[in-house]
Amino acid sequence: MTATRIIAVRHGETAWNVDTRIQGQLDIDLNDRGRWQAERVGLALAEEAIDRIYSSDLSRAHATAQAIAARAGNPTARTVQLHKGLRERAFGTFEGQTWAQIETDWPEESRRWRQRDPHFAPPGGETPLQVRERVAAAVETLAQPHLGQCIVLVAHGGVMDALYRLATRQDLSAPRTWELGNAAINRLLWTPEGLTLVGWGDTAHLDDTALDESTT
To answer: Mean pLDDT, to the nearest integer, of 15-42?
Structure first.
């Protein structure tokens, strides 16, 4: 069966990533390292036959996607298409708080969050079940028109986690044993039957000695 090749990329680093502060759907920009990471992932994917680039509409993802689009060889991939279905999980009252603050101020909610309760949502936020359904629907909408082609999806840690679990049929409450690195390259296949994992967590392009533009 013909498949859509998906390259899924988490946005580059932000100051709030460094501070372990929950971003959720707040619009936080990349920091200097995040912008560097975005340039590196753009360079790493420059030779890929990418047909279209889709991104969350939050600026940290959009800026990362634009760095990829700037080096795309295919004209159709040089304009980033925004899709709200690729947004980070909504964390409601947790947004703007550090992990330590959440543990102190909302101990019971923090416990349920850390235990990966599929039905738990912070006040005003989403449950893991809701996020998985949203991400699955967004991927189907974006991948279906591109059977036989390659698309890039630039999004967030929560979206990457949902993609991995969908592709590997992992339960939402299963402990996470995979990385969700900033600007990591993850590869999947989509067919009407669902997602399949091809490769995960490639960060070789973020090695300081890798992909030096002067040697490529």
So the answer is: 97
